[in-house]
Amino acid sequence: MAEFITTYGFLIVSMVFAAMLALSLYLPLMTGQLSLASPGFYALGGYIAAVMSTKVFPPTPQGEIFPLVYLLIEMLVAAVASALLAVLIGIPALRLRGIYLALATIAFVEVVRVLSLNLEITGKAIGIFGIPQPFLNKFEYMWIAAPMLILSTWFVYRLERSRVGRAFAALREDELAATAMGVNPTYNKVLSFTMGAVLAGVVGAVSAHFLNTWNARQGTFDAAILYLAFVIIGGSRTYLGPVLGGLLLTALPEVLRALAGVEFLPAFVAQFLVDGRLIIYGLLIALATIFFPQGLITPTMLKRLARRGT
Amino acid sequence: MTTPALDIQNLTVYYGAIQALQGINITVYPGEVVTLIGANGAGKSTTLRAISRIVKARSGQIRYDGRDLTALRADEVVRAGIAHVPEGRRVLARLSVADNLFLGAYTRNDRAEIQHDLEEMFRRFPRLAERRAQLAGTLSGGEQQMLAIARALMSRPRLLLLDEPSLGLAPIIVREIFEIIRNLNSTGVTILLVEQNAQLALQNAHRGYVLEAGSITITGEAKALAGDERVKKAYLG
Ligand SMILES: Nc1ncnc2c1ncn2[C@@H]1O[C@H](COP(=O)(O)OP(=O)(O)O)[C@@H](O)[C@H]1O
Ligand SMILES: [Mg+2]
Q1: Are A219 and A43 in contact (CB under 8 A)?
Q2: How many angstroms separate the Cα of A207 from the Cα of each of A279, B56, B74?
Q3: Bridge-partner residues for B159, per DSSP?
Q4: Which CATH architecture group holds B6-90+159-236?
């Protein structure tokens, strides 16, 4: 067990973070908004935690761990800051549709990156080092990551079944029809965008501690594409899609690495499983979009399962 | 005469540089069925969209119960008692029949009453009741039109805007839909009905307006319009 934890602790926590980041992209998608802004808010949340823990809070004495209360305060500040920023940029940006919104949100992610490369407070190109640890090892981050995932998944599950969730779904389906029914498009789009931003920001705050260091390479444009892949492959029409997509696809490279270790495997196959990881990954994405265009998990599938269960 | 429920004065609407409505006047009195007929592209849908604030009016007034609707948001128009059944039905295909109906009541907060109205809709439209858990996209055209009307009724409107309810439906279904419309009117709902099928519309309305290229050209009692030579030639074939 101890060996398993030291080997896979980092991976398991990363999987949980990935699931939440996929959810953060799924939330604006609930109103039909293809936003790729999540890495920007993730980066923001990370910098807030990094700065607060290294410059604001009193230094943690030698041999002691960083107080959990401080981490919770950082998460709260990250949530509030992400929400404010999301409302601020959401109101103008969400007038854009489809690919234009996607491009605008990519621009936002890029602005955050360039700012962090140039500002004193974010440590410029070097970033912020030595972010204190609230836990003894990486796997113990599950104490915070697991409740966060359960809470956010439960939240989105409840949201989908609420009046607000129905309004989101109506907007995603047909904005004109939704407007005719009295659903306010701007309000609901900004709301869903803000929810996604808050989740990404809070995950960023914890990630900064988890990774120990934070710099401009955290939360870039390619991360957004990765989250989008989690959502599309996992399933973009139910809360479970992004959660499973994030968990499974983050584990995939490690599973391939483990497979390569199997005995009797021809050397070149083993080599490919390790070195060709990204190729296999891309191939799986292509195959999944061809054979599971709705993603692995669909609402119909869940309904069928529920019926069999009762 | 009583004061109008809906009073449109000099309404103009533009889409970019294109003028869709050139200053039209329409009045609808409480309890009436008024129809707006005209060729494709005349501006009928635009008129309804301007009333429900889905498109902006460039100038003019739309008074409803003494309030100027052009100052309101779309959701405030629904709250004021106006429901819009858009052209092409536009039911939310991936949502269940019941969820479509719940969305019709989106602007209301009285949970118990909403549930009551939902059951009332299922009583009134038994075919929807049988399919309440089904996705709206799997319904037939006629059933979707019923759902679109039922969804609009869920906001408890006093004025119903209907945009081409007969569009693409078999004659027997059209008859059924118009019977529903007459029944609604007899329960006190005022109706502004847009139709391309002028004959059908004039048979079912008290008064009518003819819209041509963004302007009202003829107006009068429905019977008189049905006998009008110009209307006959252009719209009744
Ligand atoms: N969204 C739009 N953008 C630009 N022009 C539009 C739009 N909707 C309608 N129009 C134009 O406005 C005019 C009136 O359209 P509409 O109200 O849909 O007519 P009708 O309902 O009588 O067929 C037409 O010339 C149409 O091409
Ligand atoms: Mg039309």
Answers
A1: yes
A2: 27, 46, 42
A3: B82, B190
A4: 3-Layer(aba) Sandwich (3.40)
Contact yes or no for B73 and A166 at CB 8 A: no
Q: Do A181 and B107 touch (CB under 8 A)?
A: yes
Chain centre distance of CA B182: 13
Domain A2-309 sits in CATH at 1.10.3470
Distance B107 CA to ligand 2 centre (A): 25
| Ligand 1 pocket, CB under 6 A | B 15, 18, 20, 38, 40-46
Q: How many angstroms separate the CA atoms of A178 and A166, rounded?
A: 10
Interface contact B86-A178, CB threshold 8 A: no
The pair of structure tokens assigned to B115 is 């549930």
Listed by start position, the domains of chain B span 6-90+159-236
Q: What is the structure's pLDDT at A300?
A: 85
List, in sequence order, every residue forming a beta bridge with B210; answer none if it has no partner: B37, B218
Chain A residues with CB under 8 Å of B95 CB are: 166, 169-170, 173
Is the minimum CB–CB distance between B67 and chain A shorter than 8 Å?
Answer: no
Q: Name every chain A residue with its beta carbon within 8 A of the beta carbon of B15.
A: none
Burial track A1-22 (b if 16+ CB lie within 10 A, e otherwise)? eeeeeeebbbbbbbbbbbbbbb
Among A223, A284, A274, A283, smallest CA distance to A253 is for A274
The length of chain B in residues reads 237
pTM of the model: 0.93
Q: What is the ipTM of this complex?
A: 0.92
B169-212 pLDDT, tens per residue? 999 999 999 999 999 999 999 999 999 899 999 999 999 999 99
pLDDT at A310 (0 to 100): 63
Residues on chain A bordering chain B, Cβ-to-Cβ distance under 8 angstroms? 163, 166-167, 169-170, 173-174, 176-184, 237, 299
Q: Domain residue spans in chain A?
A: 2-309
Distance B43 CA to ligand 2 centre (A): 7
Return the residue of A nearest to B161 by Cα. A180
Q: What is the mean pLDDT of chain A?
A: 92
Taking Cα atoms as reference points, which of A119, A89, A146, A147 lies closest to residue A214? A119
Residue A244's pLDDT is 96
Rounded alpha-carbon distances, angstroms, from residue B153 to A6, B44, B84, B96: 61, 21, 9, 17
Tell me if residue B188 falls in helix, strand or coil.
Answer: coil
For residues B139 and B150, give the distance between their C-alpha atoms in angstroms, rounded to a whole number: 14
Cβ–Cβ gap B104/A180 under 8 Å: no
Residue ranges in chain B whose pLDDT is less than 50 = none
